[in-house]
Amino acid sequence: MPLVTGNDLLTPARENGYAVGAFNTSNVEITQAIFEAAAELHSPVMVATSQSAIKYAGLGNIRAIVENLASETGVSVALHLDHGTDMDAIKSCIEGGWTSVMIDGSHHPFEDNIDVTRRVVAMARPRGISVEAELGRLVGIEDEIAVREGEAILTEPDEAAEFVERTGCDSLAVAIGTSHGAYKFKTDPRLAIDRLEEIASRVSVPLVLHGASAVPADVLELAERYGAKLGGARGVPAESISEAIPHGIAKINIDTDLRLAFTGRIRQVLQESPEVFDPRKILGAARDGMKEVVAAKIRLFGSANRA
Ligand code: G3H
Ligand code: 13P
Ligand code: ZN
Fold it and tell me: 83 alpha carbon to ligand 3 midpoint, in Å?
């Protein structure tokens, strides 16, 4: 099956109240884990690559792996550039077979963000490639800042409407209290669902939730049992994700939970089977762990049997 675009996957997701998982990859095993879970659950999926992941693995290698797995498995998949900030890197993806790109201008002032986003839309649209943009800052609401200041970094609904209108972006990543990585909250996790609701009432394009990893207790426990030092790691609870999806969240980004599963399983094999030195036994165990994570997300996001 040829790759599909971001719009092909996200428009029906927003219309029908489910979300498509966008899982970050940087190697064969992660990509296989994503495809195996998606194929078994008949789920559409996005394979996401950051600029640094592309540098690490090689643009042609990633494209070849994803295209091959798409044709072998029949999974409905978009190949997505995550957090594009460099115009040359974005152009390489647009010209290199990616079917969805993110321009992350969220660190720019509003007008500059509009400007860079419009430039990417102008590059991508003639090729039918979808564009995700971002507005607001992905910082945990209570992360080192008072709640009132925290509110200021959340996506502002009127600005979001103006931004989408003026840029023509296809989907919009919003800041509602999530952040990247394994240390999202110092106290009780809290997402600004009321803010999301307001944004969703003004913006009709699919909304995107970054920093959505849960840091699942079982995954964390396994990694720590085998020596990982992850004290204080805390993610977004499943209930918050379930609450967000009916309010327009149609794409949910997961990287950290795959990294944690990968690390835990590798630590386990190396510690329990010190005689093992076959990379396939080590990375194969990691792949199994990541596949379980992807499958759990697909079920939670409601995208199973939507392919
Ligand atoms: O949001 C960022 C992703 O987790 C990718 O991170 O730049 O380390 O590949 P990375
Ligand atoms: P996590 O770090 O929560 O997995 O978020 C990943 C992400 O947003 C990638 O763009
Ligand atoms: Zn992100």
Answer: 6
